[in-house]
UniProtKB/TrEMBL annotation:
This is Phosphotransferase system glucose/maltose/N-acetylglucosamine-specific IIC component/phosphotransferase system IIB component. Keywords: Cell membrane, Membrane, Phosphotransferase system, Sugar transport, Transmembrane, Transmembrane helix, Transport. It comes from the Bacteria. It comes from Breznakia pachnodae. Residues 1-422 form the PTS EIIC type-1 domain. It is found in: Cell membrane. Its main location: membrane. It is a multi-pass membrane protein. Pfam families: PTS_EIIC. The chain crosses the membrane at residues 12-30, 50-66, 73-90, 110-129, 149-169, 181-206, 218-239, 245-262, 269-292, 298-320.
Length: 422
């Protein structure tokens, strides 16, 4: 799978709940206004509660998708990374760490709970998982080997990262805010440039430390009700039939998010999932609409009609010129690293002990010469489920992406056997 698709998938997992939560909040508002229902209060608060914890969910999801294996340890590491850095840079910790009389809290630290930090924590924890999940410690510390080592390393790395961010976070936030203020000072053209910049950095979570002017936010939310259905309808009806089922739910939830006026990040992440070119076109057209329609104070219906026509024209042009962009899939197609493949062979007694390797759905079937040479504990150390014995010399191993694992094992098995023959 391409990196941008995997990244978009990692953000989609937490974002797909947003339209449901916003719909519940709208329903709760209706109940509260018409029936004075006390239960409505809890549903209304659910929206703010979920959005406040969205960065934490990003940290867990990004770590999960970018790790070599889908394992609970990488989720724990992502959550741990976010908790550590946000607590190190919290108002309470910084006030206690320095002399209160001589310390003034920088206002930028009040923005530390944001999606950008969550995504960054997810990436860092995934890198650490891929690096340390196969490390074997000396015998006395063997319990902490492999995936158990990852949260420990993550904790120490994030402590150092938090100290580093104490120095670089305030100037970074001031630089971003200065740049945004400079754009907004350019009147109508500045509004368009700000919209382009805001939309561009939304998929990396950086927009969460900015504040969009109310007039721009209202305009974008309104025309999104025209843009989103038009764009996604073209995508749905021209997507390759082979992949249409995979995207149906995503498209429906994105449409629902536009109808309940949820955050536009879901639509932008879906565009990134399809292809980065779709997102770039959206950024260009949206900023152009802000300059022309919002600047000229067109009505929402006129602005929406122009927006739908522009997006429809660009999408149809893409279909004509780049039809391959509508033949995409979301299947994870990673291959195992050579080091990990060799460790799996070692767990099954080495190259000479393996007779055949087959994949069957979500299972890998491995036939061995002698099961006495098999050490399934090594498989567990790598973060996989323990293989089960089906017959005397046959092991059934339940794994995600069994075909990828089986293909990697077969490829190395064939190469090593040929080398032995030679």
């Amino acid at each position: 799978m391409k990196t941008y698709q995997r990244y978009a998938q990692s953000l989609l997992l937490p974002l797909l709940l947003i339209p449901i939560i916003f719909m519940l909040a709208e329903f709760a508002t209706f109940l509260d206004q018409n029936f004075n229902n006390s239960i409505a209060y809890f549903l209304i608060q659910l929206k703010d509660f979920y959005l406040s914890y969205l960065p934490l969910l990003f940290a867990a999801s990004v770590s999960f998708f970018f790790s070599r294996r889908m394992d609970g340890t990488n989720i724990l590491s992502g959550i741990l990374a976010y908790i550590i850095i946000t607590n190190i840079l919290s108002e309470k910790t910084l006030t206690l760490a320095f002399e209160p009389a001589a310390f003034t809290l920088d206002s930028s630290f009040l923005l530390i709970h944001n999606s950008f930090i969550g995504i960054m924590c997810g990436v860092i924890s995934a890198i650490l998982y891929n690096r340390f999940s196969t490390v074997q410690l000396p015998q006395g510390l063997a319990f902490f080997s492999g995936k158990r080592l990852v949260p420990i390393v993550t904790g120490f790395v994030m402590i150092g990262t938090g100290m580093l961010f104490y120095l670089i976070w305030p100037p970074f936030v001031r630089m971003v805010h200065s740049f945004v203020n400079a754009l907004l000072s350019l009147s109508i053209i500045g509004d368009g440039l700000f919209t382009a910049f805001y939309t561009l950095v939304t998929p990396i979570g950086l927009s969460s430390i900015m504040e969009m002017p109310d007039n721009l936010n209202s305009f974008i939310q309104s025309i999104s009700m025209f843009i989103v259905p038009t764009t996604l309808a073209v995508v749905y009806f021209h997507i390759n039939d082979k992949y249409r089922k995979e995207y149906t739910i995503i498209i429906l939830f994105t449409l629902l998010s536009a109808l309940v006026k949820g955050p536009t990040i879901l639509f932008e992440v879906v565009l990134l999932l399809i292809h980065p070119l779709f997102l770039l076109i959206h950024i260009l057209l949206l900023s152009l609409l802000v300059v022309i329609c919002n600047g000229a104070n067109f009505s929402i219906w006129m602005s929406g009609g122009i927006a739908a026509l522009l997006y429809l024209s660009c999408m149809m042009l893409l279909i004509t010129k780049k039809p391959q962009y509508f033949s995409f899939n979301m299947n994870r197609s990673n291959s195992l690293s050579l080091e990990e493949t060799k460790q799996i062979f070692e767990a099954f007694g080495g190259i000479e002990n393996i007779i055949t390797i087959k994949d069957n759905g979500k299972k890998v079937e491995i036939y061995v010469v002698d099961k006495l040479y098999v050490d399934t504990s090594l498989i567990t150390t790598l973060g996989y489920q323990t293989p089960k014995i089906k017959e005397a010399n046959e092991y059934v191993w339940e794994v995600i992406n069994s075909k990828v694992i089986a293909d990697s094992l077969r490829e190395l098995h064939q190469k090593e056997l040929q080398a032995l023959i030679l």
